[in-house]
Amino acid sequence: MSQTANLSQIYLDANATTPVLPQAAQAAMDAMQDLFGNPSSSHITGLKAKNLMEQTRLRAKTLLGTGSGKLIFTSGATEGIQTGIISGLIKAKTQIQAGKKYTLLYGATEHKAVPNSLAHWNEILGIHAEIKSIPVDHTGELDLEFIKNEVGNALMICTMAVNNETGVYQDLQQLEHCIREQNKEVFWLVDCVQALGKRPINLATTSIDYAPFSGHKLYAPKGIGFIYIRDSAPFTPFIAGGGQESGLRSGTENLPGLAALNVIFEMLLDKDNSSFYDVDTLTDYRRQLSHSLSQAFPDIVFNHKFKNSVPTTLNFAVPGFSSKELMDLFDAANIRVSSGSACSSKVTRSFVLDAMGLPAWQSESAIRLSFGPAMTQAEIDTACLRIRSAAKALTNSCLMLDDSQVLQDRAPLDGLVQLRSGSSCTWIYADLKSKQALVIDPLPELEKRIDTLLQCQQLTPIAILDTHGHADHISGRVGLAQKYLATQKTDELGWPTETDILTLADETYHSLALGELTLIKLPTPGHTDDSISLLLTSDPHKLTTHTRYAFCGDTVLMGTLGRTNFATSSAFLMYHSLKQINRLIGQQTLICASHDYNNEFTTSLSAEVIRNPLLQAVLSGVLSESQFAARKADLDANLNDEVGSEILCGAYNTDCDKAQIKEYNSAGLKLRLSTSTNVKILDIREPHEYALQHNLDTTSEPSDIDNVLNTGINIPMTRLVQFIQEHQSDKESEWVLVCRSGSRSMVAAQAMHRLGFANVAHLKGGYALSS
Ligand code: PLP
């Protein structure tokens, strides 16, 4: 039996949802075409439908050991959770005694459907009980001591059988003992969504009052679920209407969904069935996957203990890699996994792992890999193979080191790399010919990645520099300098004490040679008194035309200027620094800042003066230094000191003008390429993603659009600034940017557009919607 007939995609995100098993899909199709009757109709077609429904209910009741409890079909677990909570709370409200304090308890790692529903109905029903979350320990197990102390005053307690992010299960017997010893009356809801088919369930032998389930987590379609209600538990219908489900849940029943569930129940009940594998096999799958993961990523950390987790969920983090990076990597390897965090807006951490007290980095970079009991050995084998290929691709793109010093698969680095962490940037310049490198503003969290890159590319840094003493973070410079430049004598920012002196237009500057290039140090105080700018040029005597990059730290930021309200700041000095930068570099020279608050990569004076009136006024000479200082003080006074945990280094304009970028869908792009020779594809995924996709072990033929996209060149986001620099004279060509989902390509296209690439476009929805 195969979970998915097509091995080209390995689906390891079963805790989010599962594909519908072919047998279940067929049953649903039959129900739509033949058994389509309304179970409430009394003619033969209706009776057949009703019979199917009752057969499904009977199977569910047998499977779950519901005894005399009720089992009602719902649209899914979220509806079941509402039903249970409303039923419990409406009854509890009638028992409330004036002056007594009550609580509603829920496990800290519960799916959000539970605490959000508790809060909602607590408010709507005017109960106003205090809602308390039950802590878990580092293994994810509920704090029984807490429950013992609190459950006496609780109207309702909600726990989960198996956690959806980690697979951690609770010992329900022990939990029941703890709850009932203190409170026989409290209504107990157990979210059993992730337990179905993975843990033994025998509901009538427990005092669980409500147990919601969902079909789409176990190979049935979305839109069908069910809830168990203990016979002695109170019940209030959540949906009233035509009286279906004996008046317990109105609305014409979802017969196709029920037909599919019926097949799943039949398989679960049949011990000899060959579609679902037993716990031993699933545990062996986990062993194989965890072994491959550990081989592929030797530093891997699993975020839960296997001993109290179902074997079908693995949650892990790899030091030095964000969950976004790993998601992109797995997607390129054609393995679907999920980031372990609740990815809503700026929330990038997992509240489940936070509740377990795991270190922040583990919670931020968690990846969840989950499969269902119909997973096949062939799929596991392919997954393991691809995990190893993914890791190999990472070593080839110098993001991970392996033991072999073989460089043949690795593209040699030549030029500028931009690494980012949050909104901060580190810049590395590699000179291929001399094998020398320059590291600017190394962030401590990127230290390992920088070190790996230098080792992997066999580069020797000539200097590791900061553009100023950073207020918002400590520099990663010292650790790297100790490793690579232990004997070099430098100032506080890492500038070597012994350097060349250059005289340009009667002014002297310190400089360093980097291969055939020259790095010039320019004191640019203002943001801080020690701020410097670093100009990398191919001809120091023609700076305006030959400066490739100006690393200006926080002096010129994209869309703004660095703040000047620190103790060591001076707006007066910044005024002169800006003028000096303007005198020395060209209007198109790319300015590489220490921060990128708005995903803009790089900028130039010509791009900045258009949108930064203060800079424009300084450079055009209409402002005196004191006028500048006054305006700057106003600007800084309105500066939001922090965004999240970051200290802002400059006021930034949140409504920065974003250009309208031309968007293609895959058909439109194909057409455009067939009619024009001046269109160029730029694949901006990271090299490992690009390599993986091009070396996949699939048997499927590349699609038309794959063939089109394969004509492109691969310029990853980390190298985009260099690409812009090298194509300053080719801004008229039509560049079409592509990536995995269309979000990176959009951001990069906007940056290019702002810097004068008039015809830049991107592929909407990226590869995800094109293949
Ligand atoms: N509870 C848990 C543990 C879940 O994993 C989910 C789904 O992610 C739900 C509840 C909600 O289920 P449904 O999608 O059926 O509403």
Automatic annotation (TrEMBL):
Entry's transmembrane regions: none
Residue intervals of the Rhodanese domain: 675-771
EC numbers on record: 2.8.1.7
Cofactor(s) required, per the database record: pyridoxal 5'-phosphate
Pfam assignment, any one: Lactamase_B
Chemical reaction(s) catalysed: (sulfur carrier)-H + L-cysteine = (sulfur carrier)-SH + L-alanine
Single GO molecular function: iron-sulfur cluster binding
Top-level EC class as recorded in UniProt: transferase
Keywords from the UniProt entry: Aminotransferase, Iron, Iron-sulfur, Metal-binding, Pyridoxal phosphate, Transferase
Xref: SMART domains: Lactamase_B (SM00849), RHOD (SM00450)
Classification via Gene3D superfamilies: 1.10.260.50, Aspartate Aminotransferase, domain 1, Rhodanese-like domain, Ribonuclease Z/Hydroxyacylglutathione hydrolase-like, Type I PLP-dependent aspartate aminotransferase-like (Major domain)
Family: Belongs to the class-V pyridoxal-phosphate-dependent aminotransferase family. NifS/IscS subfamily.
Name used for this protein in its record: cysteine desulfurase
